[in-house]
Amino acid sequence: MFITFEGLDFCGKSTQVKLLKKYFEDKNKSVKLIREPGGVKISEKIRAILLDIKNDEMVFETELLLFSASRAQLVRETILPFLDKGNIVISDRFHDSSIAYQGYGRGINPKFVIDLQNFAIGKAIPDITFFIDIPIEEVLKRKGNISESELDRIEVSQNNFYEKVREGYKLLAANEERFLTLDGLMSIEEINEKIISKIEQMLKER
């Protein structure tokens, strides 16, 4: 099973990723947790370039291609080999992030971004994508609790950028059956319960 988590920065997906990993481990399942960008040596080096706040001259096209390159390496080096062995992979972000952030957020033609992502991920199509949705006001509130020096190049983006990204995610969720939208304003426990419920339903259907 290949499971991905999506959402705006500070939506709480990383917390839910760890909780789901523990759920599978408690059931003695072999599970691989990965993050994007990164996850393998080459991709981690690309991550350092992408998120370095000093790289403020980076153009949107470069950003998209670097994310895609990092993803292509991760897919072929880790995701597909692990899935081929019958294991579970959980990814903190995946190709939908590029469609929402670089396509809708940055204004690069979404169709081109989708085609590029299809090329980058190949057969690595998620079985389920959990989209944790929070309003922009909540993004600002949660961002305010973090030191500015700890924010990366994407996280310092302006509100209108995040509005476009959120709309992009909503469009994806409306058009992709694998998406499950969760209210990110619910408690951590409530969100986790809904995720586990969906996963157990999927396991029964297999």
Describe the structure.
By secondary structure, this protein is an alpha/beta fold. The chain has a single domain (2-205), classed as P-loop containing nucleotide triphosphate hydrolases (Rossmann fold), CATH 3.40.50.300. It has eight helices and five strands. The chain has a five-stranded parallel β-sheet, sandwiched between helices. The longest helix is centred in the middle third of the chain and has 25 residues, at 60-84. The relative contact order is 0.20. The mean pLDDT is 96.
Short description:
With 206 residues, the protein is α/β, with parallel strands linked by helices. Helix content is 56%, strand content 13%.
Features:
206 residues; alpha/beta; Rossmann fold; five-stranded parallel β-sheet
What is the highest CATH level, the class? Alpha Beta
Residue share in helices?
55-70%
Principal-axis shape equals globular
Q: Kindly state the number of beta strands.
A: 5
Mean pLDDT, to the nearest integer, reads: 96
Uncertain residue segments: none
List the helices and strands and how they pair.
Layout: E1 2-6, H1 13-26, E2 31-35, H2 41-51, H3 60-84, E3 88-92, H4 95-105, H5 110-121, E4 128-133, H6 136-143, H7 159-175, E5 179-183, H8 188-205
Parallel strand pairs: 1-3, 1-4, 2-3, 4-5
